Amino acid sequence: MTDDTRHGSSGSTSEDRTSEIQYQRELTSYLAGFLTPHRKDVLQRLILERTRHVTVVVEDICHAHNVSACLRSCDCFGIQDFHVIENRNRFDVAADIARGSTQWLTLHRHDYSESQPDSTRACIEKLKQERYQIVVASPHDANCELETYDISKPTALLFGNEKEGVSPNAMQLATHIMRVPMYGFTESFNISVAVAVCLHHLVWRMRQLNLDWQLSPADREELLHDWVRISTGHRLNSLVKRFEQDRSAGGGRSEGDFWPDWETILSVCGDHLIK
């Protein structure tokens, strides 16, 4: 699982950034040389299916198996970012439920601290600054429906914990409160089921519309580099060391040696993607 820390510094020059990009592309290509053709094909295909147009936020989830099932659903539906609010309950993963999905996602943890005692507000305000609509899934006081919600705007789906649901603070700060249709006696879905139901509907609709839902070229490149590093497993540190030694000895690569074809992957449109 990658975190939301990005490389580089605000004080770097354009020449420094160009050098960083060149280094990262060389390292990505070098590490990819130790992956199977099948793995490389999968990485290059799935990077084009990822989105940040929709993101998921969970607030104070109690049980590891529930949050792990939510993570797994996010990966299956191509959702890249997963936000965890930790006011009272600490985030944990049940590996047998997540089934390896966590390593491909970008986790954003918003936890309690003396300087930031209200993690819910901090998370929501950050997402609003990034122009997300904050949509709370709740059976109470809804002002929109899952079937008719306008997915054309970037959307953060927020789900509360298993016992108490979404906090009053989150309800007050939300842009929308969305009702998920139910036709039985039980008042609410299990949280992991609610996440899967909402994502299935909204991601399907998002892909039918003429929206710019794919990752930006810079995000694709950054994420693909992370995925290649993850894919090398326990060999990563030794391979990076060998790369540094080869590069210092003048073993740099020409543009024609790079994997993938960056011009293609950074400029590809979404017409061919799975609908």
Walk me through what this model shows:
This protein has 275 residues and is α/β, with parallel strands linked by helices. It has 2 domains: 18-47 and 220-267, no CATH class; 54-208, SPOUT methyltransferase, trefoil knot domain (Alpha/beta knot, 3-Layer(aba) Sandwich), CATH 3.40.1280. The protein is built from 10 helices and 8 strands. Strands 1-4-3-2-7-5-8-6 form an 8-stranded parallel β-sheet, sandwiched between helices. Strand 3 (81-86), helix 4 (95-98) and strand 4 form a beta-alpha-beta unit. The longest helix is centred in the N-terminal third of the chain and has 19 residues, at 14-32. The model is unreliable at 5-9 and 270-275 (pLDDT under 50).
Multimeric state: single chain
Distance between the termini: 26 Å
Give the ordered list of helices and strands: EHHEHEHEHEEEHEHHHH
CATH overall fold name of the largest domain: Alpha/beta knot
Strands of the largest sheet, in order across it?
1-4-3-2-7-5-8-6
Overall structural domain count: 2
Number of helical segments with 4 or more residues: 10
The total count of strands amounts to 8
**Strand-residue fraction?**
5-15%
CATH architecture grouping of the largest domain: 3-Layer(aba) Sandwich
Classified by CATH, the class of the largest domain is: Alpha Beta
Characterize the largest beta sheet: strand count, sense, and whether it forms a barrel.
Answer: 8 strands, parallel
Principal-axes geometry comes out as elongated
Bin the helical content: 40-55%
pLDDT < 50 runs, ≥5 residues? 5-9, 270-275
Radius of gyration: 20 Å
CATH superfamily of the largest domain: SPOUT methyltransferase, trefoil knot domain
Structural class: alpha/beta
